[in-house]
Amino acid sequence: MDKTLPDLAAAVAGIDDGMTVMIGGFGGSGAPIELIHALIDRFLATGHPKNLVVVNNNAGNGHVGLAALIEAGMVARLICSFPRSADPVVFTERYLAGQIELELVPQGTLAERIRAGGAGIPAFYTPTSVGTNLAKGKPVEVFEGRSYVQERWLKADVALIKAHLGDRLGNLTYRMAARNFNPLMCMAATTTIVQVSQIVDPGGIDPEAVITPGIFVQGVVEVPHPQQEEDLNRAKAVYPEAAA
Amino acid sequence: MTDKLSPTQMAWRAAQDIADGAYVNLGIGFPEMVAKFQPPGREAIFHTENGILGFGEAPAAGSEDWDLINAGKKAVTIKPGTAFFHHADSFAMVRGGHLDVAILGAYEVAETGDLANWSTGPRGVPAVGGAMDLVHGAKTVAVITDHVTKDGKPKLVQRCSLPLTGEGCVTRVYSSLAVIDIVDGHFVLREKLASLSVADLQALTGAALRLEGPVADLDVPAL
Predict the structure, then answer these.
(1) Which segments cross the bilayer (chain A) (predicted)?
(2) Domain A8-131+139-233: which topology?
(3) CA distances from A128 to B26, B108, B131, B137 (A)
(4) What is the dihedral of CA A179, A183, A188, A190, to 10 degrees?
(5) Which of A79, A90, A128, A211 to mutate to test the interface with B (most CBs of B within 10 A)?
């Protein structure tokens, strides 16, 4: 078994028009910038993929990563909890112009819907959003005297993930708070593609330290010294550079 | 009457109620300051919903690690005892009743405990983040807020006019003028600035203030 991929272009080659794509990260931490940029490169060269449904906690910041994916016109619909950032201009303009759909989901509900999708649980009940606008149209049930809203699982065709160490079997570790949504999204996608800072031999990750077991991973590509969205934004970077 | 607490002073007052050993989530903005005012000898563990328990203070400028941020996307640090976890575990801590205290900001708080703190109406881009999750599960859900809006209108009201974050969730309010508990659908006054009479405070509050026992002076250092 060898899940390693030769390069970023190969890693994003199987993503088609209209697919649902989960993208890991919370703001810039844990965001797979290089995989996202490789997907933009493919779109610029071939016109595909487009009309994507993207699942992420946020809606991009500045003009790199997820914001650049939206700016390229590849995203038809976004499912997220917090479409604001230090520089949310790309999403904001498209949303207010009616060019991109938004499904707003409370952050914990978003996480649990993704987890449920990966765990084979089609629906669950949560106290979050009871009595609010975000519960409208959803079944509410009382358990032990308290009301709970029914929420449904969330699954994806592809997940684009950033991890720290990976091996050819797909076992992963993460780095500090860059873990966030990444392990959940690995579970919830048909095809999970991971960029790791370093590929190690099997056994190079202590079994006690594996966070995502390889069964949830289909592809691993090595990206040493990955870029941080925050650093790129502080340098006022734009992707692709020609658009600057 | 211009005498009122600053946000820093409200944060100080809220910090005095956090017990030794408490697990605490501080909302983005003013509530984050509560961590600075932990009374000596008490150890509280702070939770941030993006997956850290027991994080440390902000690093010096230039030494940030952008894999190590809080929910406000500001850089933090680790310290002995820090733990990392993924988002589903993080919100299990929130909804599952494992946090002792959550401290949030507010646009409006109703006497029923309803909270509005995520949306000022239908314009612009809606964003909720973790606000709707954080109001459920913690044993104490407290709010730090100015007692009135910039226009002088009460923020403590009978019923919220803005979109709700949660129903019946707030248990205590640290306002710029008073400390008020929410008990069985009523505001119960616990502390007020000594310079204010109960009648003065009632005039600035949009619902009845109940008195159950003595009302202490809200005494906060200048800071």
Answers:
(1) none
(2) Glutaconate Coenzyme A-transferase (3.40.1080)
(3) 18, 19, 9, 10
(4) 110
(5) A128
Q: Rounded CA gap, A15 and A7, in Å? A: 15
The end-to-end CA distance of chain A, in Å, is: 42
At which residue do the structure tokens 């949009």 appear?
Answer: B206
In the numeric block, the tokens 């909720």 are attached to B128
**What mean pLDDT comes out for the span B161-166?**
96
> Which residue among B64, B86, B132 sits closest to A183, beta carbon to beta carbon?
B86
**Which of A129, A107, A58 shows the shortest CA–CA distance to B27?**
A107
ipTM of the complex: 0.96
Give the C-alpha distances (Å, rounded to integers) separating A175 from A34, A202, A211, B22, B69.
17, 19, 11, 27, 12
- At B27-76, the pLDDT tens digits run 988 899 999 999 999 999 999 999 999 999 999 999 999 999 999 999 99
pTM of the model: 0.96
Q: What pLDDT sits at residue B127?
A: 93
B68 touches chain A (CB under 8 A): yes
Average pLDDT over residues B147-158: 97
Task: Give the mean pLDDT of chain B.
Answer: 95
CATH number for the domain whose boundaries are B7-217 = 3.40.1080.10
- Write down the residue that tokens 């658009």 correspond to: A243
B193: its two tokens: 């600035």
Looking at beta carbons, which residues of chain A come within 8 Å of B64? 230
Question: So what's the pLDDT on residue B2?
Answer: 55
